[in-house]
Write a structure and sequence with these properties.
Distance between the termini of chain A: 25 Å
Oligomer: heterodimer
Distance between the termini of chain B: 50 Å
Number of domains of chain A: 1
Largest sheet of chain B: 6 strands, mixed
Order of helices and strands of chain A: HHHHHHHHHH
Largest interface: A-B, 25 and 28 residues
Shape of chain B: globular
Helix content of chain B: 25-40%
Number of strands of chain A: 0
Radius of gyration of chain A: 18 Å
Chain lengths: ~250, ~240
């Protein structure tokens, strides 16, 4: 526990010193939320909807920090630490090398959680946001999406040959998901052909789950999305554990 | 314990390439052992097999009567390691790196004392990457000493250092040896080996071509200086002529 805590403290400092996660996981979702707030205010999502457009978008905006940490932050830090042989160095100490991975997962989890809390506060205070669904259900959904996205990132970081390849893969995953899965550009305003393509992105399914639970819509409607999240988490975790490259 | 490190009949190949063949060596408590050889002679592979980060194809290895693979957790409480190149995070500071390293061990020594002894206590808040070559190397020795080890393994400790910095490092190592620490090192520099090592082993293409003390190495060769003797053993001179 001493090792974990000391490492967490230090790695958190290093991460904050790097600034990029502050920008991508903390500031960016807030900017997206504020822009949506400026455009849509407290207008309903559609004629006769019982919830506002912003309430509908909340589930999407909270996924920005999850994907920034999961498919951008994690693959980069894992392949960087492998390249710098920090993982290997831990092998010649009494500590388990896996501890540094757990520390990183905790850090990116904390970013996502901080983002969630900030977005909730800002949306509630400035845009009369209300969580329509059951908060516990929403948090479970959020956790499932987080596990699923993080497992993708750990797999990419664990298998990519070097940081350059990890960087390319992370960009290929992150930017399309950010733009086309509805995390920033609302899914509801996309043409239906584009929506069909978007449906293929894992994060789109995650966002459907987050929207359904935050709006209190019947969970039965998003069973396929839940299944997709579970399968991704299962497959990527299995591949990571089986094939992870420590050096 | 008769020997702190015992390697018997170690062999390791990568595909068709034989990296180490039937290597045996032993390191006595409180002594300095030097593993020498040209690049690609098998030094790094040997070190990695001893540390358990590579699995040998054959032979047996023990450090402090423990196996580096099966007793990893117990063993590395008592063994300090310094790799050839530094392994640290991009923006980490000296104090942070020491603190994290200390947190890996049950009974670490006070790293601030060590930094003091090694004359870099004022660098606590400095980013590691901004240290000079000599300061970095001293820091890496500090890191290897944080566990309060009985044995340290140092891989090419002084490569890339200027003459002054190398002398400083030698002095430190001699002091540590005087305090009873057993040291296993690899090196290209014969002046260093002459100053530090009690026993040396010269590798050539993965095989032992000399094993004994520095004075024996000179005596058994046609030369009077260790450097000449070393080149004679490892045939580096012939290769150079061939290259010409």
């Amino acid at each position: 526990m001493k090792t974990f805590n000391t490492m967490l403290k230090t790695e958190m400092k290093l991460s904050l010193r790097g600034m990029d996660m502050l920008i991508f996981a903390i500031f960016m979702p807030i900017i997206v939320l504020v822009v949506l707030g400026i455009i849509y205010g407290d207008r309903p999502a559609f004629e006769g909807a019982s919830y506002t457009f912003l309430e509908q978008s909340f589930g999407a905006v909270v996924s920005i920090a999850i994907s920034a940490g999961g498919v951008m932050g994690l693959p980069l830090v894992i392949s960087d630490y492998r390249g710098k042989k920090i993982l290997k160095r831990l092998k010649v100490t009494p500590a388990q090398p896996v501890i540094i991975l757990l520390v990183q997962i905790t850090i990116y989890g904390l970013y996502a959680l901080t983002s969630l809390v900030l977005l909730y506060l800002i949306a509630s205070v400035f845009y009369s946001f209300r969580m329509q669904g059951d908060i516990l259900q929403f948090l479970l959904g959020w956790l499932l999406v987080l596990i699923s996205m993080f497992s993708i990132g750990i797999m990419v970081g664990g298998l990519a040959k070097n940081i350059k390849i990890a960087g390319i893969l992370a960009s290929l995953l992150y930017f399309p998901m950010l733009i086309f899965s509805g995390a920033t550009l609302p899914y509801e305003v996309m043409p239906s052909a584009m929506q069909k393509v978007a449906d293929l992105l894992p994060l789109t399914q995650g966002i459907k789950l987050l929207k359904a639970t935050s709006l209190g819509l019947p969970v039965e409607n998003v069973l396929p999305s839940i299944l997709v999240m579970l399968v991704i988490a299962g497959v990527c975790s299995f591949v990571s554990i089986r094939f992870f490259k420590w050096e | 314990m008769e020997n702190v490190i015992v390697v018997e009949q170690l062999s390791k190949s990568y595909g068709d390439l034989v990296a180490v063949k039937n290597l045996s060596l032993s390191v006595k408590p409180g002594s300095v052992f030097g593993l020498l050889g040209a690049n690609g002679a098998g030094k790094s592979t040997t070190v990695e097999c001893i540390l358990g980060t590579k699995k040998p194809d054959g032979g047996s290895i023990s450090i402090l009567d423990l196996s580096p693979i099966h007793d990893r957790k117990t063993l590395f409480e008592k063994v300090g390691v310094q790799f050839q190149e530094a392994h640290y995070q991009e923006s980490i500071q000296v104090g942070e790196l020491c603190e994290v390293t200390a947190s890996l061990y049950k009974n670490p020594t006070d790293y601030k004392n060590l930094l003091e002894q090694f004359g870099i206590a004022d660098k606590l808040k400095a980013p590691v990457k901004e240290l000079s070559g000599g300061q970095k190397q001293r820091l890496f020795i500090v890191l290897a000493l944080i566990p309060n080890p009985e044995v340290v393994l140092l891989d090419e400790l002084t490569t890339g250092l200027d003459a002054r910095a190398r002398r400083d490092v030698w002095q430190i190592l001699n002091k540590l040896k005087g305090a009873g620490l057993s040291i296993f090192l690899t090196s290209h520099f014969m002046d260093e080996v002459e100053v530090l090592c009690d026993t040396i082993c010269i590798l050539k293409k993965g095989e032992t071509v000399f094993y004994g003390t520095v004075s024996e190495a000179i005596k058994n060769s046609p030369y009077e200086k260790l450097e000449d003797a070393y080149l004679w053993y490892s045939d580096e001179e012939d290769n150079k002529h061939e290259d010409l």
